[in-house]
Design brief:
Blueprint lengths: L5 H7 L8 E5 L8 E3 H17 L7 E5 L4 H13 L2 E4 L6 H11 L3 E4 L4 H10 L4 E4 L7 H6 L16 E7 L7 E6 H14 L7 E4 L6 H14 L2 E4 L5 H7 L5 E4 L1 H8 L14 E4 L6 H11 L4 E6 L3 E5 L16 E2 L4 E5 L12 E6 L6 E2 L3 H6 L7 E9 L5 E6 L4 E3 L2 E3 L1 H9 L4 E11 L3 E10 L7 H9 L10 E5 L12 H7 L7
Parallel strand pairs: 1-10, 3-4, 3-5, 5-6, 9-10, 9-11, 11-12, 12-13, 24-25
Antiparallel strand pairs: 1-2, 7-8, 8-18, 13-14, 14-15, 16-17, 17-19, 19-20, 21-22, 23-24
Helix pairs in contact: 2-3, 4-5, 7-8, 9-10, 10-11
Bound molecules: methylmalonyl-coenzyme A and adenosine monophosphate.
Length: 513
């Protein structure tokens, strides 16, 4: 029987000449470093052998919070190869956040950077993890030291399509993160659809400038290049000038809207700089129509906007091929082949084309459920097993999908998700705070910015900057409010519900630029 392991499919797409360059680093220690396809083959084999030597239970989770490096990508591939479950963690997460993920996922292996080893290993050992390794972006750390002793031959572990490949934590409306369980089949079917839909080619060169702890950078970008046997120019950190410098050698670029906004601010972004480019792709947050239009005016390229989620990977995309239609700014294109997408009203009744309602989806890309949360999983699927995205939108008569909002209380800032309930939870626990409301307001760079509005307990005095400083010491920096206000009361409706719309309206000009 055919091995359903995603790694087997990626490995099968490596070019026959393993001595060809697969990845070239553009920044970071020692750059430029050149990794061949043979290096990826041997490196992932050694890391997979190391994992195999640990005698891990079936389905063991490997949690990873490290800086972006090619070795970190190889670790991801090795986890697939050995048949374990990969759990990537944002490098911005602090102790309280990591403690929750480790406690919830109970990983058998944790890999962290050396500077965090002290506190991370303490949390991991407390949660019963027996193996904690370090990995830094300069190819140092105990993980590579141990892997260096392993054989570079490894047989890919047999896995079925429905076996778990990764868990991606995505925040919940109640403030607690849920682990979306993605299978080998989810990831591979989506990668194959995107490969065909976006016309990936072996002679493509992808500029990879996104973090590798979320769907966009880890799956959509990396799988795209790997499955095409295409070369990557690898940036550990996004830098608009550096990306523009490399465009003449590249053919594909992927980014969240903030990356495009920042590149547009550079005079070096010209039609000539983009002449060799085949495709610019955007997603993870709404791309403003102004950005779409400005990009065409400056470069001649219409950005291809697509839409997805951690739970579903990619759902819809504007066409690549002009024969299928134009790339229409302000829309997220058509449902991908094999993906069902429908619009329902509040009661679950179907809506005709053009009417706005809840977006529900179905397909081989849709996840298996939330890790150890069967009730939450059941709540998010309809009785006929369509997944409720929490996004609100419409499908036009011509089939284009437009997202107009979200029914979930979510802020997307620079492509990162922030759940107001989580931040409100931290604020409400602070001494002197009676209640709080966290909202997203327009931000010229990040799309949306987090703003907190806080009410003091009777007799207490609150200092807004001090509240922000306190949050900064506790939670990932991108979640920290860019502004905070202390007020006498929160606006409420007749039912007593906080009117967040009013707060958004009141503060909408703060960062609009
Ligand atoms: C950094 N800062 C931010 C953000 N990033 N604030 C709000 N939102 C952000 N996204 C703040 C930091 O807290 C810090 O503030 C200051 O900016 C500088 O931090 P630094 O790390 O140097 O920032 P940067 O390197 O300029 O990062 C900006 C960035 C980054 C490149 C836009 O946020 C980024 O890579 N975003 C991409 C996220 C992504 O890949 N999302 C895909 C999710 P201070 O100095 O005050 O501490 S996957 C997904 O959503 C779905 C499935 C999909 O459809 O793809
Ligand atoms: P995540 O939790 O990181 O998986 O974020 C998924 C959410 O990002 C989706 O439910 C949408 O709300 C949003 N999203 C992703 N792509 C787009 C897009 N192109 N336009 C608007 N929103 C998007």
């Amino acid at each position: 029987m055919k091995n359903g392991n995603l790694f087997a499919a990626l490995r099968a797409a490596f070019p026959a000449q393993l001595e060809r360059i697969a990845i070239e680093t553009a920044d970071g220690p020692g750059a430029p470093l050149y990794y061949t396809w043979g290096d990826l083959e041997r490196g992932t084999a050694m890391l997979a052998n190391l994992l195999d030597s640990l005698d891990l239970p079936a389905g063991a989770r490997v949690a990873v919070q490290t800086e972006k490096s090619v070795e970190a990508l190889m670790l991801y591939l090795a986890v697939l190869r050995a048949g374990y479950v990969y759990l990537p963690l944002n490098t911005a997460y602090q102790a309280a956040e990591i403690e929750y993920f480790i406690g919830n996922a109970e990983p058998s292996v944790v890999v962290c950077s050396r500077r965090n080893f002290g506190w991370v290993s303490q949390l991991a050992f407390k949660a019963g993890t027996r193996n904690v390794f370090t990995l830094d972006d300069d190819r140092s750390g105990s993980l590579l030291e141990r892997a260096a002793l392993m054989s570079d031959q490894h047989t890919v572990a047999p896995r079925a399509e429905g076996d778990l490949a990764a868990i991606l934590y995505t925040s919940g409306t109640t403030g607690r993160s849920k682990g979306a369980m993605l299978t080998h089949g989810n990831l591979l079917s989506n990668a194959r659809v995107l490969h065909d839909y976006w016309g990936w080619r072996r002679d493509d060169v992808l500029i990879h400038a996104l973090p590798i702890f979320h769907v966009h950078g880890l799956f959509v970008a990396s799988h795209g290049a790997l499955l095409a046997g295409a070369r990557m120019i690898w940036l550990a950190r996004f830098d608009a000038r550096k990306v523009i410098e490399r465009l003449p050698e590249a053919t594909v670029f992927m980014g969240v809207p903030t990356l495009y906004v920042r590149m547009l601010a550079e005079p070096s972004l010209t039609r000539q700089a983009c002449a060799h480019m085949r495709l610019f792709i955007a997603g993870s947050a709404p791309l403003l129509i102004e950005t779409f239009n400005d990009w065409i005016a400056r470069t001649g390229h219409p950005i291809l906007e697509r839409y997805g989620m951690s739970e579903t990977i990619m759902l819809s995309s504007n066409p690549y091929d002009a024969a299928q239609g134009e790339r229409r700014g302000g829309t997220v294109g058509f449902p991908l082949p094999g993906v069902g997408l429908r619009i329902r009203d509040d009661k679950g009744h179907p809506l005709p084309s053009g009417e706005i309602g809840h977006i529900e989806v179905k397909g081989p890309n849709v996840f298996k459920g939330y890790w150890r949360m069967p009730e939450k999983t059941a709540e998010d699927f309809t009785t006929d097993l369509w997944f409720k995205t929490g996004d609100v939108g419409k499908v036009g008569a011509d089939g284009y999908v437009t997202i107009v909002g979200r029914s979930k209380d979510l802020i997307i800032s620079g492509g990162y998700n922030v759940y107001p309930a989580e931040i409100e939870g931290y604020l409400n626990e602070m001494p002197g705070v009676a209640e709080s409301a966290v909202v997203g307001v327009p931000h010229a760079d990040f799309g949306e910015a987090v703003v907190a509005v806080v009410v003091a307990k009777p007799g207490a005095t609150l200092d807004a900057p001090a509240l922000v400083a306190e949050l900064k010491s506790k939670i990932a920096n991108f979640k920290v409010p860019k502004a905070a206000f202390v007020v006498a009361d929160l606006p409420r409706n007749a039912m007593g519900k906080v009117q967040k719309n009013q707060l958004r309206e009141q503060h909408k000009a703060l960062f609009a630029g």
